[in-house]
Model the fold of this input.
Amino acid sequence: MTISDEDREAKLIFIEAFFEEFERRIERLPKLLADSFKDEALTLCVVYIDHLASGHFGGDQSNNENFSRALRTLSGDSLFAMIHPRDLLEKAAGFCHEALPLLESVVQNHPNALLEEALLRRAVQESGLAEPVKQKLNSNLWRASIASICYSHIRGQLVHGPGSGGLLFEDSLYKGKVGVKVDFDLLYRALRSIYDSVKTKSLQNAEWFGNPSYPDRNKTG
Done:
């Protein structure tokens, strides 16, 4: 349903006010960290990412999928889209066991390296796997992404306990260097980028979180 220009302008005022307050919350996080509230700062950082991701992508996807998608596509950091080889093999054993020989071959050809999703998709497409298996595998590669690992091992542990100080992949090879660290600074930069993207789309479209399916919080019966 289309809305009048007057209603659109009124809605934009509410949306902009919401994001201004949200940004004030984000800007308080480095102060929390500086005041030795590291866990609190990191917890709020991932909760804010979760909030923006759920609002923007919404739908029937899980929180994990929305959170991971936001980090992979809106953070501006390609690290979050990289696939962790050990996690890929562990996850694939559950959701796509028949693809394990192919995946093991790819992993062995890139020892200790974080893998680009595009590389894996090419290997899958060129394989002799049945088409339904290819589709299932490709649609679930994100589950082994660094973004998804952040959801389970940082966001999950901080919110539900026992806490997390971040992640260190000390043997992982990425961009020619060994060792990958996911800490507050990295996630805070991602949060800022996700916030900027979601806010921009929200104001461009006059939709909450830039999502036309998001419930209109100002609509009355």
About this structure: The chain has a mean pLDDT of 92.
